[in-house]
Amino acid sequence: MKKSILLFTFLFVYAILKAADPVYTYIVDLTRVNNDQLLVTLITPEIEEKEITYYFPKIIPGTYRIADYGRFISDLKAYDKKGNELKVIRVDDNSWTISKSHKMTKLTYLVDDIFDTEIKENQVYPMAGTNIEDGKNFVLNTSGFFGYFEGKKELPFELKIIRPDAFYGSTGLIPVLNPSLSASIEKEMLQYVSEGTQIDHFTTENYNHFIDSPLMYCEPDTAIIDVAGTEVLISVYSPNKIVSSEYIASNLKEILYAQRDYLGGELPVDKYAFIFYCEDPSKLLPIQGALEHSYSSFYYFPDVAQENLLDGIRDAGAHEFFHIITPLNIHSEEIQYFDFNTPKISEHLWLYEGMTEYAAHHVQVKYGIISQEEYFATLKQKMTVASNNFNDTLSFTDLSRYTLDKHSSQYSNVYFKGSLIGMCLDIMLRDLSDGEYGTQDMMSNLSREYGKDNPFKDEDLFDKIVSLTYPEINDFFQNYVQGGAILPYEEVFQKVGVNYQSAISKREFSIGRIGLGVNENSQVYVSGIGRMNEFGKALGYEVNDVFLKINGEPMPESLADLQGFFDEARKNMKEGEIFTVSVKRGEEEVQLSSEIFKVDSSDQHVIAINEEATERQIRIRDAWLKPVK
Ligand SMILES: [Zn+2]
Question: Residue 565 C-alpha to ligand 1 middle, in angstroms?
Answer without folding.
Answer: 29
